[in-house]
Amino acid sequence: MAKAMRTTPLGGTRQLRRWHRARILQAIRAEAGISRLRLARKLDLSPSVVTEAVAELLAEGLLVEKPLPPTGQGRPSVALDLEGECHGVLAWEIDLDRMAVALLNLRGEVRARAVLPPAPDSLSAALEQLQAATAPHLSGVRVLAAGLSIPGLLEPAQGHLTLAPNLGWADLPLLERFRAALEALGLNKTLAVVENEANAAAYGLYALGSLALEHCVYLSLGVGVGSGVVVKRSVYHGARFHAGEVGHISLDPQGPPCRCGKRGCAEAFLSLRRWQEAPTLARLGEMAERLAQLSAVVLATLDPERVVLGGPLVEATGEALLRLIQAKLPRYALSVHAPEQVALSPLGREAALLGVGALAADFFMEQMAYEEVS
Questions:
Q1: Which of 117, 150, 289, 311 could form a disulfide bond with 222, CB atoms 3.0-4.6 angstroms apart?
Q2: Does pTM top 0.85 for this prediction?
Q3: In what order do the strands lie in the sheet with 160-164?
Q4: What are the CA-CA distances from residue 72 to residues 32, 36, 75, 314 (Å)?
Q5: Which residues contact residue 238 at a Cβ distance below 8 angstroms, ignoring those fewer than 6 apart?
């Protein structure tokens, strides 16, 4: 989704100024309290360019400033930071066990949040409930962009939901319906993005998680097994937007039947429902064995820095499951891969919600940097 913003855009002076503004926002997002002089050095820009761009961002309300402590003679420097109360992004999550709404600032800090019951039978009903939960939090807030995460196969650029099997939804213009829901809230020109929930969670690990990962795979373990892949700080979707469907890798051809029609898929062994049916040490050990198998396949295939585990199953089993996986991993993984490469998500159950918010924030800055202006 987000670009590194190192490539100078084609276009005239106005386009270049927007690119400078976006790079400055991105730099301040990474380093709060930075001075104008340090910004100029960090971005290799002239002080005059930084001063002009910062003035525009201050006038627009996207930045705030405060004096830095004096360091000696001369005028004290001024620290710049993102405005965090009145400008932000909206994140919506639709999932099997809950829906959720959050308003976040550009740094990813939650300013308002509501958790709703599981998704209803139709997309229309789900969007109406999310609208109702959002409306009370919009007073005095400028929403710069909005993101929606959902567990299903979709084409993010076109916004078409091909299939959400666990929700029972298929062939829906998700982005179009999302935009209509935003317009009903008065957010008529708000930038909007939709993303698979595991992809959103994986992106959140890079953008917001303390792991600082540029290459990672997130395994979402709940009703089924989903996966999100981040490569060089961007979500990898694959040639047909189906990358990360690791839940249907067969771990045992003679294993239990899977709803996809095959036998022994990872999803047939690893689900919250299966754990709830028999929450015993024996079942925990079996699940750890299968997850060690699956993690080894992912490590050998994609060579991520980490395989990060999240979702309701992980919330229910936590460190106990992780310790068993790490102990069993050497049985299946190549010698170059270490047990510590499998880890728990630091974002917990909020990974997809926060991740799609981070995607929306980066989408806003990307559009500022590269959208053509007349």
A1: 311
A2: yes
A3: 153-155, 160-164, 169-172
A4: 22, 18, 9, 52
A5: 244
Type of residue found at 312: P
Tokens of 181: 């829901």
- As a whole number, mean pLDDT of residues 112-121 equals 95
User: Which amino acid is present at 372?
Assistant: E
Structural domains of the chain, with CATH: 13-82 (1.10.10.10), 87-200+351-370 (3.30.420.40), 212-345 (3.30.420.40)
Rounded percentage of the chain residues whose pLDDT exceeds 90? 60
Long-range contacts of 95-98 (CB under 8 A, 24+ apart): 95/119, 95/149, 95/150, 95/151, 95/197, 95/222, 95/352, 96/151, 96/166, 96/167, 96/222, 96/223, 97/222, 97/223, 97/312
pLDDT in tens, 238-286: 887 778 788 889 999 988 888 888 899 999 999 898 999 999 999 999 9
- The pLDDT of residue 156 is 78
